[in-house]
Amino acid sequence: MGDQGNIVTKPQDALANLLSKEMAQVNELISQRMASQYAPRIPEVTAHLINAGGKRLRPLLTLASASICGYTGGFHIHLAATVEFIHTATLLHDDVVDESAQRRGRPTANLLWDNKSSILVGDYLFSRAFQLMVDTGSLDVLAILSNASATIAEGEVLQLSASRDLSTNEEIYLQVVRGKTAALFSAATEVGGVIANAPKAVQTALFNYGDALGIAFQIVDDLLDVSGDPDLMGKNIGDDFRERKLTLPFIKAVAKSNADERAFWKRTIEKGDQQEGDLARALELLKTHHAIEDTRQDALQWSRRAQDALTPLPDHPMKALLATLATYVVERIT
User: Fold this and answer.
1) Residue 290 burial by Cβ neighbours in a 10 Å radius (0-12, 13-18, 19+)
2) Cα dihedral 276, 277, 280, 286 sign
3) pLDDT at 268
4) At 101, is the secondary structure helix, strand, or coil?
C-alpha cells in the first residue's frame, strides 16, 4: 500500500497517526518480547522482518477497535503485539513453504539464514504470542486468537492440496482465504471489542468487518497478480500462474472452460508443464471468460460488506477511518 508521505491521506496512515502513542508502546513491547538471552539469532531474524517497513495494519486494527469501544486499560497493547507476532510467524513459515527469496523488497529470512532458522524462530514467535494472550487474563481473548492460529494453519495446509487441483471451487478458495488472510484480520478486530467488554453485537460486528476486509484484501492481491501494473507493484505479472496457484480469477476461468481449455489448465497448473507463451494464453482466457471483471466485482462486494458491518459500532472518528480503509483496499482495482 505504499510508503507514508508527508501528508496523511491513506486511511491506515491516518490510523497510525491517531494511534502513534499506542503503536510506540506496541513496538516497545515487541522489542522486549522478541529478545532472547540464549539465542541471539531469534531477535536477528525477527528484527529483519518486523523492521522491514511493514504496514502494521493488523495491530492498528486491534488498537482502533479497542478505542472505538472506549477501552481505557492497557491490554490492547498486548493484543496488538500478539497479532503482529502471529502475522510475522506466519510470514516466516510461508517464505519457507513458498521457497520465496524476497519479501517487502528485501531478501527473506530463509535466504539470509536458512529454512531451519525461519521455522524455529516462527515457532518461537507463536509461543511469545500465546504468552502475551495469557497476560490479558481473558479466556475469551485466548479462545479467539488460538482459534485464529489454528484456522491459519488449517488454511495453509488446505492450500497445499487445493491450489493445484482443478476441482477447487470458489467455496474451497474462500476457506483457504479465510484461513491464510481473513482469520487474523477478524481476530485482530474482534479482540479489541472483547477486551473492552463491548456488547456482543459490537464484537460480532468487528469480527464481520475484519473477515470481509481480509477477504477483499486477498482477492485484490490475487487480481493484481493478473491485471496490475508491474512498475507500480514492484513485481512481475503472473507469479501465481508460474507458481501454479489457482487463485480466484483462474478458478472462475476454469469453471467456464471447454475441453481444450481445461486440458491447457491441467497441463500448466496440475502437471506444471509450462511452456513459452502459456502465461499469455492464460491471461487471454481470463479475459475471454470475464474472470478478471467478475473477480473485481467480488472484491468490491466484500468491501461493501466490510463497510456495512460497521453499522452497529458506536460513533467514533476511527469508525469512519475503518470504513474508508475498506474502500481504499479495493481502490487499486477500480
Assistant:
1) middle
2) negative
3) 96
4) coil
Please report, for the chain, the start and end positions of each structural domain, with discontinuous segments joined by +. Answer: 11-331
Helical spans, DSSP H, in 228-290: 230-233, 239-242, 248-255, 259-265, 278-288
Kindly state the average pLDDT of the residues 129-155: 91
Superfamily of domain 11-331: Farnesyl Diphosphate Synthase (1.10.600.10)
Residue 106's SS3 state is strand
Average pLDDT of span 112-126:
74
CA distance 133 to 126: 11
Q: All 3 cell numbers of residue 143?
A: 479462545
Average pLDDT over residues 202-206: 97
Residue 334 cell numbers, joined: 477500480
For residue 88, count other CB atoms closer than 10 A to its CB: 25
Question: 96 vs 56, 73, 102, CA distance in Å?
Answer: 22, 38, 11
C-beta separation of 258 from 266 below 8 A: no
33's grid cell: 518480547
219 compared with 31, residue with greater pLDDT: 219
